Q: What sequence folds into this?
């Protein structure tokens, strides 16, 4: 029922919704860029909070790559003394929350990404497999997850299930990366 109310609100106020959405996305990109350049998002200095923020900004920026996995990898080194499980949880939480921007972009507009050659395939996969498709897209380190989030939003996929599946997938991915970086597994570190 709340999804229908939200969909009705968006339909009545589509121009305002799109303006707010793009203001948040552009604000996240600019704010994250300034924070990154200014050195405020250095995970080595900020610990768990830094991992959360770097991944939040990186995922919210949608198309601008911010090295969230690399930040978690750097924070997981044994020299810093951070717990790699808590670091993975912080990174996954930030990344999952940040993915809401892609979901909302798909929910409220026909964006440029929807014209991508990958969009129809991923859209169909999300239609057929739902949460499993979102989980797989979230586990694999690739830039196509944003297309999956946009597809889920355009389908009206329930946001609570979207966050659940994406959160589980991101947590698995971040746990593997943090553990690998803690153990200095060179082939996985090179992948990140």
A:
């Amino acid at each position: 029922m709340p999804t229908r109310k939200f969909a009705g609100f968006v339909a009545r106020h589509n121009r305002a919704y799109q303006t707010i959405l793009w203001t948040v996305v552009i604000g996240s990109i600019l704010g994250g860029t300034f924070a990154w350049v200014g050195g405020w998002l250095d995970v080595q200095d900020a610990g768990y909070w830094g991992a959360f923020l770097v991944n939040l900004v990186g995922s919210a920026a949608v198309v601008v790559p911010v090295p969230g996995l690399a930040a978690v990898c750097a924070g997981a080194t044994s020299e810093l003394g951070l717990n790699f499980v808590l670091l993975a949880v912080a990174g996954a939480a930030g990344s999952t929350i940040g993915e809401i921007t892609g979901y909302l972009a798909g929910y409220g507009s026909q964006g440029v990404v929807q014209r991508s050659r990958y969009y129809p395939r991923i859209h169909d996969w999300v239609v057929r497999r739902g949460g499993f498709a979102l989980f797989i897209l979230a586990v694999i380190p690739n830039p196509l997850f944003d297309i999956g989030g946009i597809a889920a939003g355009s389908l009206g996929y329930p946001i609570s299930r979207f966050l659940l599946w994406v959160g589980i997938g991101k947590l698995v991915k971040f746990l593997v990366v943090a553990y690998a970086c803690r153990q200095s597994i060179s082939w996985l570190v090179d992948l990140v």
